[in-house]
Every structure is written in structure tokens, then in C-alpha cells.
Amino acid sequence: MKHITFYLDFVSPYAWLAFERLPQVLEGLSYHLHYRPVLLGALLQQHGNPGPAGIPPKRDWTYRHVSWLGHAQGCGLDMPARHPFNPLPLLRQALACSDDGTVNRFVAGTVLRHVWLGGHDALDPARLDALAGALAEQLRPDPEGTGAQAKALLRANTDAATAHGVFGVPAYEVDGRLFWGLDGLPMLRAYLDGDSWFDGPAWDAVPRVPSGLPAKG
Q1: Domain locations in the chain?
Q2: What is the pLDDT of residues 118-134, one digit of tens each?
Q3: In the CATH scheme, what architecture does the domain 2-203 have?
């Protein structure tokens, strides 16, 4: 059985699309999937990456593309009323349902659908209350009522993701190898199927190709 870690942030439309696509991609395999919420903004900042929303023409294209992908995949995707938004309340709400930094598929799916179906404001207080109610049976004890454990788990998850080379979401780690993006799912499946390419030199060799750009001064 393969153990796959799925790094996600609920603010990412590609995380929703990958979440919906993964069961089909992994069909017929023996695996255990660990859903690990991380703070995408911190990962992007680590690498000086503004993200798609930081480049206006790319933002426009990304929103059109993901809306079409939701249609093409049949899972749907409605842009929320505001995007991007601060995902911390959602990440902490999900991790309030965790003891170890991972959440189950019910929790991950409930929060993702809250954001990506219906076109509503993901941070609307009434909707956040409704989301909390939907997750109530999944909550872990919080004797002090401060949410400190959820905050600590999010920090630990994001730090661990950075240490493992995660630079964006969705990302999938298996056997110490990292795969990224919705369009990385076929490559992940090929690896899990034992594609011989992964036994050759390319995986380690291609990152060592020298850059032709001048060094930053």
C-alpha cells in the first residue's frame, strides 16, 4: 500500500479540482491518502512568488480556466464572491478536526465545497457558522477554547511542507517524491503504476540543468 500526502489550501481552485479528480486517478490502486492543509501564501512568499492573482492578466485567465475545468470534469466550480481571500479561518476550522495535522476526506470535501460551489463569500460569518455546524461531529477536544492546537498544526504542516520542497498546491508526496498541480496527476499515476521512466536518470538529472539567466546581484 502506498501512502500519499495531499497538500492543499482551500483558497486554491486547483485543490478542489484535484480533490475531485484523485479518486479516478487512483482507481484500482492500494493506497492511503493523507490530506494535509497548509498555508499557500506562506509557501509562495518563501519563493517570492506572487501567485496567479498577483498578475492581472494571469488572474483573468486562471479564473476562466478553472471555471471551464470544473465544467469539463463534471464536478462544477463557481468562483467565490471574493478571491483571493484570507484562508486562515477555513484552514484552522479544518484542523480543529485533527489530532496530527491531517484531515479526513469528509472534512476536506466539506470545506472545499463551501468555497467552490455556489459562488458565495467563503468568509461570510453566517456561512462560517453553518460550516462549523457541518463539521461539529468531527471536532477534537479543545479544553481551553482558544484553537491553539489548530493554529500550531497549521504552522507545523506549512513548515514541514516547505522543508519537503512544496512550493504550491495541490501537491502530492509519495516515497519522498513530490508531484505538483492538477496536471501532475497523470505523472503521479504513472509513478504508482511502476513506469520505468522513474527508474532512469531523468528525475534527478533534469533539475541539474544549468540556468542560462544571469545570477541575481
Answers
A1: 2-203
A2: 999 999 999 999 999 99
A3: 3-Layer(aba) Sandwich (3.40)
